[in-house]
Amino acid sequence: MTMLTRSGPLTPTGTVRTWEERVTPLYRRTRTIAPPVVVVVIAAVLMGVVLGGAKLSLVDTAARIALLIAVAHAWNLLAGFAGLISLGTSAFVGAGAYTVAMAVANLGWPWWAALLLVVPAMLVVGYLLSIPLLRLRADYFAIGSFAALLALHAIASNLGVFGRSMGVPMPTAALPDPRTTAALAIAVAAVTVLAVVYLSVSRFGLRLQAIRDNEAAAKTLGVAVKSSYLIVFVLSSVLTGLAGGVLALQDGSATPANSFAMSWTIGALLMATVGGVGTVTGPVMGVFVVYWLLQKQLEDFAALSLIIQGALLIVLVRAAPTGIWPPVKRLGKTILLRTRDRRLASAGKKA
């Protein structure tokens, strides 16, 4: 039975628990609860700014950043936790965009119903594509996902029902206003980040990481490898498709050039890699670095921007495969620990 003293609670052996022993459980609980709370608070603040009196140019920028965060984190779900490097992100962005555009333009659905339709539609698309793709591993999975992107792009470009190269434009009167679209983008980004937070602390996330690190060993331990891959693949597909649906509402149409653009795949891969694959904050940091420094500042030099992004990706894969953010965090922790040790040493000398 645990006893209490003025110094603190006694353990069953009668020794006084240290301050670290008393605080550690609270720290662990806080570390689990804090990320979702922070995500929700930030999303609420951004929505307040967007729905308030912010300029429309700022609103459009906020929407684009939110969509990039959603796509980068949806890619991070696959690569960071399951070890599946996908080159087919644009396929799911395009599928979500065309789902919304065709529901609004061809079926006369309201935009909000069309956006809700993305969820079951992407469940089906994700499941169908998972049948051949999840039989592949490593480089073969990447090549297979890229082939899926090329196939969907070709279908949208050549079939009349999808408008061929002109795409599917939506009536302006059927679209939400830019502030509502930006709020939707922020909501999708928040849900995607929360999904990553869940995987970082849940048992399912631990199972995925076990599969990523050693699939054979995970099977030996009884982990359901196939179903785990299927769940995370379909989840990533749905979240990416939702981002594509909001993109269609922002652009007012779905076209092969924009909706299936390779830039979504390259951007997701680069942004997640810059910030740190398999982390919660990494892709968010990567979005701001890549978008502001390499895309926004060089928007008049598109070719140069792509060259720099490609070179940066090669350097990161070779020199810092875990991304820039994790080493920065480790450096910060090292500096803090050394500073604390110096203070303790100086306090000991004074005593």
Automatic annotation (TrEMBL):
**Membrane-crossing segments per the record:** 33-53, 65-89, 109-129, 141-162, 182-206, 227-249, 261-294, 301-320
Q: Which UniProt keywords apply?
A: Cell membrane, Membrane, Transmembrane, Transmembrane helix
Molecular function GO labels? branched-chain amino acid transmembrane transporter activity
Bilayer topology annotation: Multi-pass membrane protein
GO cellular component annotations of the record: plasma membrane
Entry's InterPro entries?
A: ABC_transp_permease, LivM-like
Tell me the compartments it is located in. Cell membrane
Q: Which Pfam families match?
A: BPD_transp_2
Indicate what this protein is called per its UniProt record.
Branched-chain amino acid ABC transporter permease
What organism is this sequence from?
Microbacterium ulmi
